[in-house]
Every structure is written in structure tokens, then in C-alpha cells.
Amino acid sequence: MPNLSQKAVTMPESPIRKLVPFAEKAYAKGKNVFHLNIGQPDIKTPDSAIQAVRDADLDVIEYSHSAGFPEYREKLAEYYRNTGIEITQEDILITTGGSEALIFGFMSTCNPGDEIIIPEPFYANYNGFAVMSGLNVVPVTAKIEDAFALPPIEQIERKISEKTKAIVICNPGNPTGYLYSKEELERLRDIVQKHDLFLFADEVYREFCYDGAVPTSVMNLSGIEQNVIMIDSVSKRYSMCGARIGALISRNKEIMTAALKFAQARLSPPTIAQFASQGALETPQAYFDEVVQEYVQRRDIMVDGLNSIEGVFCPKPSGAFYCVAKFPVDSTEKFCQWLLEEFDKDGNTVMMAPASGFYSTTGLGEQEARIAYVLNQNSLKQAVECLREALKVYPGRKIK
Amino acid sequence: MPNLSQKAVTMPESPIRKLVPFAEKAYAKGKNVFHLNIGQPDIKTPDSAIQAVRDADLDVIEYSHSAGFPEYREKLAEYYRNTGIEITQEDILITTGGSEALIFGFMSTCNPGDEIIIPEPFYANYNGFAVMSGLNVVPVTAKIEDAFALPPIEQIERKISEKTKAIVICNPGNPTGYLYSKEELERLRDIVQKHDLFLFADEVYREFCYDGAVPTSVMNLSGIEQNVIMIDSVSKRYSMCGARIGALISRNKEIMTAALKFAQARLSPPTIAQFASQGALETPQAYFDEVVQEYVQRRDIMVDGLNSIEGVFCPKPSGAFYCVAKFPVDSTEKFCQWLLEEFDKDGNTVMMAPASGFYSTTGLGEQEARIAYVLNQNSLKQAVECLREALKVYPGRKIK
Known about the structure:
2 copies of one chain form a homodimer.
Chain A: H1 6-10, H2 20-28, E1 32-35, H3 47-55, H4 70-82, E2 92-95, H5 97-109, E3 115-120, H6 125-133, E4 136-141, H7 153-158, E5 164-170, H8 182-194, E6 198-202, E7 228-233, E8 246-249, H9 253-265, H10 271-280, H11 285-307, E9 322-326, H12 332-341, E10 348-351, E11 353-354, E12 368-372, H13 377-393
Parallel strand pairs in A: 1-10, 3-4, 3-5, 5-6, 6-7
Antiparallel strand pairs in A: 2-8, 7-8, 9-12, 11-12
């Protein structure tokens, strides 16, 4: 057979999936595994979304407009206006998940060989989208001691080269849960403007902000209206990850025209899931209030629990439903594998995502792991106790 | 703002959509437009597909496995085995439409700058997928006088260069409706084997073969099992274009491993539509028999009708639901626009897709148009009569 492509070789495997074979061994031994490794929430999808599917006319499941149903875009624009983001349906392209929005965004703006700057640790699949688009990721390291705040702006600016085309952020952040302040975003805005770059912001966790924190959208940074591309998705907001409905949003008409050409080539985003997504827009505020309250409690159980374990450090995030914790171990890759293979507490163990896969710089994050607090409170309490016991007996324990 | 990418510039606009503004003018004038320009069938989606959605547990619309639900893949493998294609679920990756399957296939096998050989006229969106993957399309011209049969194999072989990585076919073909014989496919097989290339076959119209013709799948060409990638989709087979469920199929484990990495980056194909697609597998044979019978009648009305118009030539295809006809006009681009802007017969007119957009070689297909016979028989009869009258009065009429 002929050789495969270079992309096939460099395409990273998901860091979350490396441990799956070990999890399978754990199941085979009859262990119960608390899955803190993946952001699949257990929260119920809103009734209005499900009802919209049940009520939909599916006689012929037809293509939608390549940019998504006009009616859905209209109502989605209204949702944004209600959250203080002044856009119209023309600024919205409905995509197959946030993933496709990023791919179309990268391909519309960047040439193969171009560089994109991303604060690390970052959502690991950005690497995959960069490989697909032929881009080079240039990381700027955010530190766990700073709770993963935006690195000093001079540090970011030093990374800007002739090849830099865009800066990419996720806010609130996956995997850190960090919510950028308005001031941090304005510092970013200044260098985006100064160097005439594109600014991509993945804002899919917008509704998950805690302790009264209010998120600032990049769409509201004045002076770079033509440079900003927002990525969104219904996956987390309405706990409907499987719908695969996202959006690419920009006030820049040229970007929207280019992205539409990519969208036309793949014909249309999923039709049935658009009915669900349109229905989801009817979700009452009470749903979000309840979900946020639940996540605050889960976060507190998880983060306070982790910090009560000797040698563990976990900054308390203000958004999303992830945190990154530092463990007193030789390597979280080994520790996470050991948890599945060797350890159990009363038949229970924990699966986490080693953080090294979320860093682009080799060697970073080796003592850190990402935890998704997407399980019920009782499970989270048990998971913390598992980790407490595990660290007492883990042979690779190491304080530093 | 910064410049957009080269891809944004070279990404082709869909040839089918160029006429949309003129169609909108026609509607505004109150004309009825027979849409022969797009392959959106009016056939009802099978009940079992719709029922599967209604019955699905949608409490939490979760991600599926990145390769698609194992149960769906299992049943799909069984469908293929029933059609004489011996594969297992491990040879199947469920994708977001056939489009994504081609993109993942191209990116897994070809490097930017590589060449792919495609008999023209071909499905225009292959151009878009090639641009996304950085590939160069090398066309080999099939002729309308030969009913768009496979061009002589020496002609194809002459196009093979150091850069050639794959040959791409669509069988039965969009836009031609031509069904390749086993002998034609074996000739292709021989040069694929000789030059160690990949062979992509888009077989989404498999169920639409007429006059007793039986399609040969590339999966059944012996000797190139490791070189073959089949693209499939539920869109046309079950008249559910909006589901966006397709498949990449290969017995080559390395390709499947690479494609899975691309699939993992985008997390999962649409969940709800996978329920529909799994349900669709229960569709009784009677459904297809009825659909095929209907399409044969539609094809005969359309093709016989076209050939009864002086100066028009349309080979009668054995598959899919398209045909390409040659018209006695200066340019079908102009003629199709004129039909919408200037012409009507008792308030009716016709929208067709000028064929030049389906050729990669500039200047070809200028007198040809693609017609999708996806309307009811009465509409098709009226559409033929529209064309007959139109050609009597079209100012750009030209016999040659």
C-alpha cells in the first residue's frame, strides 16, 4: 500500500483516550470507575430541546441552508443580544459542533505554516484542528501558581513573529476553568490590534460562571470588531454534546463569506439537531440557575476536597466544569494508569486526564491532571476519598 | 484586518448556488420554478428512521463513540454483507455525511501538493474537499458522446505523475448517472495496483441502479484491498440528506487508525441522526423497489423528453438520479440564467445546474447542464415542455 500522509502521522491521539484500555481492564476486574476524565455532563438536556425533536416534521429529513436554518440563526442572534452581544443572524454560521467552527475559522484565515498563539494548558483538540489546517501552535505558558491567569502580555507579545496569524483562547477555559477578566481581555485586544492579528475565542462555557462572575465576550472588545471570531456550541450549555451543533460568529463579512464556502462544500449542518438546538433556546433561566448552583457545589466538593489532601494543590476556578490540580507524584500519566490498574478503595477508583496532553511544551504538566466535575456530588465525594487513600499508598509519591 | 487565507480565496463557490439570486428574482415575479438543480429528493424518509428518533432515549443527548455507535456500525456491516460486501464493523468509521468521510480520507492519505485524478464531470464539492486538504485535482475527461463511460485507461494512466496519490470515482455517478461496469472497474484496479495508488469510490447512490443493472463495489475488486476507501452516506439511500450521517470504509487498518484520530478531534458524529440511520436499516426492500420504479419512470420522462427536443442530446443513465444533457445553446450558464430571468411558460420555468462547474478543465461542459430528476412525474413533464418552448425562443440558440 502507498504511504499515508504526514498529517496522519502527526495527528495527535486524544490525551483523554490513552487510558481507555486501562479503564477497560479495571471494568473487567469489577471495579467501579469514577469518570472525571471527560466533559460529558450528566445534566439532563432541557425538555424544550427534546420536545422540539419529537414535534419536528421529519417526513423528509432535508438539508438545511448551509449556514443553518434562518429561523434558528434569527433566534440565536436574539439569545446573544439578550446576553449583551449585539449581533444579527448574518454574523452567525451554524456548524457541526464547535469543532467544525474552529476548522472553518482556521482554514478561512490562516495559511499552512502560519502560527497561532495559544495560552497553555489548552483544549487538546486544538492541536488536531491545527494539524488539519497545517498550522503551527505556539504556546505561552500559564502557571498553576497563578491559577492559570493570562500570562504577562509581554510574554505573549514576544511570541509574535512574521508567521503569527492569530491568538486562540478558551474563556472560561477548558481545561483550567479560568475566567479571563475584562482587563486581561483588553490587554489581549491591544496586541491583537497592534499586530493586526485574528483573535479566536472559544466561549462554549459562557453560561458556566460562578460566584457572581460575569464573562466578557471578545465580541464586546471595542476596536477589533473585524479581527474577532467567536466559537460557540450547544454541547455544554444545554448538555447536548451529541447534537453536534455549534456556531462560528464574526462581524467580519469577508470571514463569513469565506466560511460559508467551506460550509457549502459539506452541504448542511445536522437538521434534526438544529430543531433540538432551536428548541433549547426556550430553556428557562431557572434551568441555568439550577445547573450553575449544582456545579458550584460540585466544584467546591472537588476543589476543597483536593486541597484538603496533603501535597495536592488545585486553584479554584470561576468557570466551566474543569479544574487542573497538581499532585505529589512522579508523573500523572503513571499515577492515572496506576489508579486504574492497581488501586481501588472498596471497589472504587478514579479516572482523570493527565495534564501533559494539554500542554504543547514538552515536559510541562507532568504532575498535573485535569478533572471534570461532571458527576453527582456523592460520587465526587467518594472520588476525592479515593484520591486521598491512593496518594497514601502510591509508590511513585514525590513531594516537590 | 489581516488578510484571509489562500484557501479562502481558492475555495470554489458551489456551481449550484450561483443561480440562486436569479431564482429569487423569478419567485418575486410570481413564477413557479421547477427545481432540477439540486439533489434533494422529495421521497419520504422511511418510517423506521423517523420512528427510531421518536423512540430514542434523549434524556441526555450524549456524545457517541468517535467512530459512531458500535451497535450502528455492527448493523451497518450486516447491511453491507447482505449486499455482497464482506466487511466487519472495524472497517467502518461513521462520519458527518459523506463529505466528512472524504475530507478525513484525503487528509489521512494525501499530503498538500499531492494530485488526485478524477474523471470529469464530477461532483463539484470534490474541489472544495481538495482545497481543504491542499490537493490538486487532475481531471480526465469523460465524453457525453460515450454516455460518460470511463475514459480509455491509457488516458488515465498518462495523467499519473510522481505526485499522484489517488484516483477518485463516484459510482453510480453524480452528475452523470453513469454506472461503471465490472470491466471498467477492473481496468482501474489494474493501474491502481501497478502504480500503488489509493482508490476512493463514492458509492452513495448504490441503491439507485436501473434496468436490472447491478453495481460493483470497489470493495470487491481483488488485489487492491489495502488501497481502497469507500465513501457512503444515508443521505440519498433513505432520503435523509439532513441527517448528515456517512461512513468511511476500508479494510486498511492503518487508514482506519489515522481516520479515527481525525474523528476523535471532532469528538463524535451527530447522535440523534445515528438513531435515525440505525432505524433506517430496517427499511423493507419494498421501499427501495418502489423508489427505484419511481426513479426509472422519472428518468424516462426526463431523458426521453429531452431527446425528443430538437438539438438536445441526453445519454440515458443506469444509476443515481441525475443526467447531463447537451443543449443547442451558446452557453448553459447564460441559458439557465435566462430561463429564470426572462422566460416562463404559463408561469412556469426551470432551474438547472450548468455543467461547466462539474468540469475541472476550463471551457468544457459549456453547452451541458446537470438535471436532477427528483420531482414528481407531472412536474417533470411540465419541466420538459418548458425547456422545449424555451429553446424555440432563446436568443442564444446555437446548433453545433
